Amino acid sequence: MVLWFVVASAVVFSYTVFGLTGFGAAIILIPALSFLLPIKLVIPLVVMLGFLASITLSLGVRRFAVKRELLWMIPGMALGVALGTYSLVRLPSHWLLVALGIVVVAFGLNGLRGAVPRRPVSQRLALPAGVVGGVMGGLFGTEGPIYVMYLSRRISGKSELRATIATLFILSGATRIGSYAVGGLFGQPHVLLWVLALYPCVLFGIFLGNRLHHSLSVEQVRTGVQALLILSGLSILWRALFA
Predict the structure, then answer these.
(1) How many domains does the chain have?
(2) pTM of the prediction?
(3) Closest Cα partner for 172 from 199, 210, 212, 145?
(4) Alpha-carbon distances of 228 from 1, 63, 201, 212, 220, rounded to whole Å
């Protein structure tokens, strides 16, 4: 019971941040849960929760999605997910934790750099962005930052960007769920029970984030999240290398 309460609290917190900022739930939740549950259980669990949350949030905005950007990214994403899932199944958990710690710290440091000039990038980067994001999603369940960094330099409209990212998350989540199922990751004991038990916490966190959206600065929240990511990543590295 104590374990479930701690896990549920982490889910509510991460999706409250998601409700405030529009992204970032998985990159916060996976490091937190990796201290409580096996990493090869945590990743498919968080992926399933994120997939359900993306469907819930995108029902009213998918019509704004820029389909041509999705078509360019989907092939690379599918390839990357397959590569990432294969690595997740085959690699030892110890080295997965080391790699996860490095990735989380890198994302946190990148987020603290602040704003950068919004120059459009070439569509030729769609394939490598899709592959890298797919690998990150398949291996760590954290493809969001890669996709956001690329699409935000391709799409200028706020509504179009949000809808395109949300739709891509649904497609990516469906691909990963299928890939994880083939790889046997959903055959672990109780993973689907965890999903059913925690999904109400996802919805509650999103509700809280939406309520707080108008009273807190999103930039302040993002800065706090980046600092939290750096501390989480360093703690994961310490645990993997010295524990």
Answers:
(1) 1
(2) 0.75
(3) 145
(4) 26, 34, 21, 19, 12
